[in-house]
Amino acid sequence: MADVPRNLPPLSLHVPEPKFRPGDAVDFAAVEVPPAGAQPRPDTAADPASFHDLSYTLIRVLDDEGQAVGPWNPRLDPDTLRTMLRDMALVRAFDERMFRAQRQGKTSFYMKCTGEEAVAIAATHALSRDDMCFPSYRQQGILIARNYSLVQMMNQIYSNSGDVLQGKQLPIMYSSRDDGFFSISGNLTTQYPQAVGWAMASAAKGDTRIAATWCGEGSTAEGDFHSAMTFATVYKAPVIFNVVNNQWAISSFSGFAGAEATTFAARAIGYGMAGLRIDGNDALAVYAATQWAAERARTNQGPTLIEHFTYRAEGHSTSDDPTQYRSAGEPGAWPLGDPVARLKAHLIAIGEWDEERHAAQDREVAELVKAAQKEAEKNGILGHGLHQPLDSLFDGVFEEMPWHLREQRQQMLDEEEASGRPWARKA
Amino acid sequence: MSDVIETAATGEAGETVRMNMIQSINSAMAVMMERDPNVIVMGEDVGYFGGVFRATAGLQEKFGKTRVFDTPITECGIIGVAIGMGAYGLRPVPEIQFADYIYPALDQLVSEAARLRYRSAGQFTAPLTVRSPFGGGIFGGQTHSQSPEGIFTHVSGVKTVIPSTPYDAKGLLIASIEDNDPVIFFEPKRIYNGPFNGHWDRPAENWSKHPGGAVPEGYYRIELGKAAIVRPGNALTILAYGTMVHVAKATVEEMGIDAEIIDLRTLVPLDIETIEESVKKTGRCMVVHEATRTGGFGAELSALVQERCFYHLEAPVERVTGFDTPYPHSLEWAYFPGPVRIGQALKKLLKD
Questions:
Q1: What's the distance, CA A294 to chain centroid?
Q2: How far is the C-alpha of B161 from the C-alpha of B169, rounded, in Å?
Q3: Contacts of residue B107 in chain A, CB cutoff 8 Å?
């Protein structure tokens, strides 16, 4: 090969780079934000090929004046709007409190969803109570919107004696079958094919329930994402795929998942699937898109992929420091604003809310969270003694414990005796 | 030599007929689909065509397309979807067409199915039975011959089952489908059609004359975690599973050695009592498997025997395995632990 004469320019490798790094001034002018209400709303029975444009635009309902406009306006009654606003405020207060609890050493780890509250809360309100959700780790809003006990959530975060998961999971990796909340995995997007399987089972059984699942934009790169999309489209599974494009996968910006070339909603087009790209900070757009996708699923029109275009206003987790990789100006400059402030502005604009009530509600949810924390801490915090029976460590590996686990359990109990301070670590 | 087949069969087995292992596996699925409307069969080519090995033949016709269906070629999708179905309340029996292709599904099996019960404190379970043909000896090359059982026995939360006869295959598969934990059911494809004596250049046998080929048509189950003593003996104990049970048996019979051969049948959970009792009686132990040597399940068996029977042992535990190479296509009979390799190890083990 070497002796073949060549007169070609050298190749170069493209490595994506985000627009702003620490210290850079932020200008999001390149982010295209179409006017609210401008996007058509296809019939839920329409052929996905007839609305490809909706994968490239941003479906928006709330305009700059706080009015709900256009064909996607879900026309929700004020009570529902207020409930959604309160749920979002409650998630934010919960996040604040638990973030501080982690900083105080009461647990090992926490993940906030600040700036993304609308994604989980509005979607959950648009689903039926018995639809099964297969969340990622930033959809605590699903449990809040389904009125799951705050104390239970905190018990899980503290891995204390009240933890229904017996201290076996990382904090925030909730699981509640009764609330249609599937066990969260730390491995990314594994829940995607699982949601499809659940939805296929529901369809095969002639059930009426559907499944919804969430992943981040970064993890659309996982093979499971594409396996799930293939399965869902092949069997027309009644499932809603939510891609939460919050721009950052820890420190890797969305370009490393392919965002420079296309949108994440457009992933749907290759599968012949319905795809919507929506303003994820617009609770009404999230509600409307989910409602539309749910209707498609329930009428056997198949799956829908919804890209929620949003922004992760805080770090990835308590173990992350976003100031090390992105401009400090980004969260404030984000052109789609704050989802809580926008829904609040809407309620005020239609005369169903005011600043005083909002301030009072903020105080009320803060007190609620504080009281729940006090209650949960009665059951213990992580690191302060053993909160679960020691031998429960071996429970649940299998339905029935085989001999090798029984032997290892005995070994552990013997070690405890031999420690000289048997059971001293017990709560 | 005797053909003792010790079983722990229970149930209303019904009429006994001659079946090969493919037919008995098919029969197990048919029986379970009949009994439980939540049992579903899925995988590449398993529906209309009935599977590349014909293991699912006729099931779609009998039970319909929503219970027996073909899937896209994505192993991680097949297992991920099966987990979701299991969480819904079904009992999926996904097929991975060859065990070599289970690796793309590894994360779903290892991180998800295996841990779902534990991480959700029993709220969600993954009662799936993953069927997959494994092992070599059919000129399948590197991508149709591997034995990955050791990968799964290393994982907490999955059971690993490997039959060696049609009778066992049906009873164990029924027990696996009924089990509420995820089960990896490896089918030794070299013996789908008949027992294999390890001599690739001799005429093949078939199941019609072997006692393990007598299979009841109806329901019966063989409890997981119970080994079978397929040949009693006093000179040494051979621990084997799948194809290797037959190769080991043929070898000791040809050599006229009074070996006790234990067919483990399930690797997890393992029947340690039967192993311990036998090795304490014979004082010598050989472990045989086709999988690569380093870190293989034979290492675990060897360690267990050493830990529990050391003062009864008259020789070091001998391991006979495949080599630590990929499965070589044209040289597969050099790779395969056949009668020569087993014979040499037997002589070494019985030297003193």
A1: 18
A2: 9
A3: 187, 190, 224
The radius of gyration computed from the CA coordinates of chain B, to the nearest angstrom, equals 19
Tell me, what amino acid is at B331?
A: L
CB contact under 8 A, A231 and B81: yes
Name which of A166, A156, A165 is nearest A111 in CA terms.
Answer: A156
Contact check, Cβ <8 Å, A404/B269:
yes
Q: Is the pTM of this model over 0.90?
A: yes
Give SS3 for A260. coil
* A427 SS3 class: coil
Question: Closest Cα to residue B78, out of A197, A186, A271?
Answer: A197
All residues of chain B having their beta carbon less than 8 Å from the beta carbon of residue A164 are: 121, 123
When scoring B33, B44, B76, B223 by the number of chain A Cβ atoms within 10 A, the one with the most, hence best to mutate, is: B76
Question: Taking CA atoms, what residue in B is nearest to A402?
Answer: B269
List the catalytic residues of B: 75, 144
Which chain A residues are closer than 8 Å to B105 by Cβ?
Answer: none
Contact A173 B85 (CB under 8 A): no
Which chain A residue's Cα is nearest to B109? Answer: A190
Phi, psi of B209 (to 5 degrees): -110, 0
Q: Are B223 and B6 in contact (CB under 8 A)?
A: no
> Of A198, A230, A403, which has the smallest distance from its Cβ to B72's Cβ?
A230
Contacts of A132 in chain B (CB under 8 A): 88
CA distances from A410 to A33, A388, A399, A406, B286 (A): 62, 17, 18, 6, 29
Note the ipTM here.
0.95
CB contact under 8 A, B104 and A223: yes
Mutation target to probe the A interface, by most A beta carbons within 10 A, among B42, B120, B300 is B120
- Closest by alpha carbon to B163, among B110, B227, B81? B227
Phi, psi of B109 (to 5 degrees): -75, -45
Q: How far is B237 from chain A (nearest CA, A)?
A: 21
Backbone angles phi, psi at B29, to 5 degrees: -65, -40
Question: Which residues on chain A are in Cβ contact (under 8 Å) with B178?
Answer: none
Q: Going by C-beta distance under 8 Å and a sequence separation of 6 or more, which residues neighbour residue B271? A: B225, B226, B227, B264, B265
Strand partners of residue A244: A216, A308
CB neighbour burial string for A320-339, b if at least 16 within 10 angstroms, e if fewer: bebeeebbebbbeebebbbb
Kindly state whether B120 is in contact with chain A, defined as any CB-CB distance less than 8 angstroms: yes
Backbone torsions φ then ψ of A248, nearest 5 degrees: -135, 130
pLDDT in tens, chain B (352 residues): 334 444 455 667 789 999 999 999 999 999 999 999 999 999 999 999 999 999 999 999 999 999 999 999 999 999 999 999 999 999 999 999 999 999 999 999 999 999 999 999 999 999 999 999 999 999 999 999 999 999 999 999 999 999 999 999 999 999 999 999 999 999 999 999 999 999 999 998 999 999 999 999 999 999 999 999 999 999 999 999 999 999 999 999 999 999 999 999 999 999 999 999 999 999 999 999 999 999 999 999 999 999 999 999 999 999 999 999 999 999 999 999 999 999 999 999 999 7
Q: Which of A182, A230, A399 shows the shortest C-beta gap to B87?
A: A182
Report phi then psi at A136, rounded to 5. -90, -165
Can you tell me the distance from the alpha carbon of B275 to that of B281, in angstroms, rounded to the nearest whole number?
A: 10
Per-window interface: B 138-157 vs A, CB < 8 A: 156-157
Which two structure tokens, joined as six digits, stand for A105?
């050493």
